[in-house]
Specification:
The structure is a homodimer. Chain A has about 170 residues and is an alpha/beta fold. Chain A has six helices and eight strands, in the order ββαααβαβαββββα. Chain A has two domains: about 120 residues, Rossmann fold; about 45 residues, no CATH class. Chain A has a six-stranded parallel β-sheet, with helices on one face. A two-stranded antiparallel ribbon of chain A has the order 2-3. In chain A, helix 5 links the parallel strand 4 and strand 5. In chain A, helix 4 packs parallel to helix 6. In chain A, about 35% of the residues are buried. The interface between A and B is medium-sized, with 29 and 29 residues.
């Protein structure tokens, strides 16, 4: 059985709208998702880089993120044909471990939690495919990287791209 | 640069003495490390299996474990010649994430925390070597498994064995 590793933030957990809304509230700004095309928030407001990262360390930031459309249904279907692992760069935000674990148990209860991986450098992941919004993780990954569209990666052209979970299903099950 | 993945409990963190001492106190028992040769505590007292596991979910159980002798010095030396990742089956004890992270930051501060991996099924680990006390993790591991001696694995004969960190150094640096 081939193995698919799947990232969390911006792939199954809808990270950007919450992050942006807290940022705009806090700094009386008006950045839209449109403005984020091709860049991350910290690149758009480099003078606030630390504050932007600090938002992610607020208690429970990751706990109530919305689930990305169709990800539950498609991953459930994929899990009948592939081994599924969730691989998230949680070491970048060590306060997020428990929140991320609880979020997965709530929204992806059909997955085995022994298949959850909290890591940093994803070159440690042994899988046939990695679905991720950060192309940097593909550089040293030994399987096929699949870029999940997110505003910041719009200009990336080097990798196979999927725009939503319907396209993921198409890629793996057609 | 070749990569070595290293387990935590019973390899760099001295898990058994603390676990045993809490168990003996709690259940007025007198089990010694000698008694554990060839088996785990839960196999020796199967009627208390749940209680034995519950000890590990007590707040901060993992936070103050002693460091296994010579592991810091040898890993520091190995890190000059190999890429080092710490790979621990933390998903079995989801309450342990923060404790394990803080323990690593305290005792192995020379390692990059992006090289810490909290997982369950270690077949997800992409490394050349895995030093672990649980031989079951080697079954689907695609590199060389190296069994670190712990009372419970004394009778395991299938894998390369190291008895202490001096032997690890010998194996990798001689």
């Amino acid at each position: 059985m081939k193995r698919i590793a799947i990232d969390m933030d911006e792939v199954i957990a809808d990270f950007v709208p919450k992050h942006l809304s807290i940022f705009n509230d806090k700094f009386k700004d008006n950045i839209t998702i449109e403005n984020l095309k091709g860049k991350k928030l910290r690149e758009l407001r480099p003078e606030l880089k630390n504050e932007i990262i600090n938002i992610l360390t607020e208690p429970a930031f990751f706990r109530d993120l919305k689930v990305i459309k169709d990800s539950q249904e498609v991953i459930q279907e994929l899990s009948e044909h592939y081994e599924i692992f969730i691989t998230t760069a949680a070491m970048e935000f060590p306060t997020s471990f428990t929140e991320k674990y609880e979020w997965l148990k709530e929204h992806f209860s059909f997955l085995n939690d022994l298949n959850f991986v909290f890591c940093g450098d994803k070159s440690i992941i042994n899988a046939d495919f990695l679905i991720d919004d950060n192309a940097r993780h593909f550089k040293r990954f030994n399987g096929q990287g699949i870029l999940f569209t997110s505003p910041h990666n719009m200009n990336e052209t080097e990798y196979v791209r999927v725009n939503n979970w319907k396209e993921v299903k198409e890629y793996f099950l057609k």
